[in-house]
């Protein structure tokens, strides 16, 4: 932070174009370093944070506002939220980080533009479904899906995307921590992540987090309900 504050002040006072360019590079490097440290702390922190009853639909809408203002106009985004959405017991800041990281990842997969769609809905997982997916358990969840129409990924890449520091991006354009941080946060909240991708046909991430009632207890789904 001190480096960014100092360089920002120096840029405002500098009149030499070459020195301004050098200072801008220093400022950018400091911002990238701060981003890496922030994600490393999130990755290593474990549960931590302040948990509250969180509406993932509100989180998704807030992220959409950020995306609309900062992403290229060639990326079109939509958010669809199921009425009477259940709540999750989660750290609101970390939930913002999860959704933002997924959206940034989708943006990077669409260099020529495309469609980014978020859907948030209630979901009930039965024993059969849970048995087919790692880290899944039967019960009531809130499911958040992030779907893009980007370049997609081959199977051997999908298998590694949650590994810390693994990235397919060019040097300087990715830390390899975004998706590993998403994975860690979701697991620490008792949830799980599914990924579907196909080269040239886009990618879908599905985040599932346990649904809770007003007291913070897990919602008990009806016996005949299913995913």
Concise account of the structure shown:
It contains seven helices and seven strands.
Can you walk through the features of this model?
- The chain has 227 residues and is α+β, with helices and mostly antiparallel strands.
- It contains 7 helices and 7 strands.
- It has helices at residues 2-13, 17-45, 56-70, 92-108, 127-131, 155-158, 178-188, and strands at 52-54, 75-81, 87-90, 114-125, 139-148, 192-197, 203-212.
- Strands 1, 2, 3, 4, 5, 6 and 7 form a 7-stranded mixed β-sheet that branches.
- Strand 6 and strand 7 (203-212) form a beta hairpin.
- Helix 1 runs antiparallel to helix 2, helix 2 runs parallel beside helix 7 (178-188) and helix 4 (92-108) packs antiparallel against helix 7.
- The chain is globular and about 70 Å long.
- The N and C termini lie far apart (46 Å).
- The model has no long low-confidence stretch (mean pLDDT 85).
């Amino acid at each position: 932070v001190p480096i960014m504050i100092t360089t920002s002040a120096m840029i405002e006072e500098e009149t030499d174009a070459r020195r301004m360019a050098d200072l801008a590079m220093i400022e950018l490097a400091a911002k990238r370093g701060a981003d890496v440290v922030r994600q490393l702390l999130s990755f290593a922190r474990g549960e931590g944070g302040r948990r509250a009853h969180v509406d993932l639909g509100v989180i998704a809408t807030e992220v959409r506002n950020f995306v609309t203002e900062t992403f290229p106009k060639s990326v079109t985004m939509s958010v669809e939220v199921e009425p009477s959405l259940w709540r999750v017991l989660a750290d609101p800041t970390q939930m913002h980080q999860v959704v933002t990281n997924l959206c940034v990842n989708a943006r990077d997969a669409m260099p020529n533009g495309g469609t980014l769609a978020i859907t948030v809905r209630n979901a009930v997982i039965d024993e059969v479904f849970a048995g087919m997916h790692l880290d899944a358990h039967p019960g009531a969840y809130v499911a958040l899906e992030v779907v893009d129409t980007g370049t997609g990924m081959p199977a051997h890449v999908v298998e590694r995307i949650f590994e810390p520091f693994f990235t397919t991006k060019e040097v300087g354009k990715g830390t390899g921590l975004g998706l590993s941080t998403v994975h860690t946060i979701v697991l620490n909240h008792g949830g799980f992540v599914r990924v579907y991708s196909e080269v040239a046909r886009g990618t879908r991430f599905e985040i599932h987090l346990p649904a809770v009632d007003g007291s913070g207890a897990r919602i008990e789904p009806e016996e005949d309900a299913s995913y």
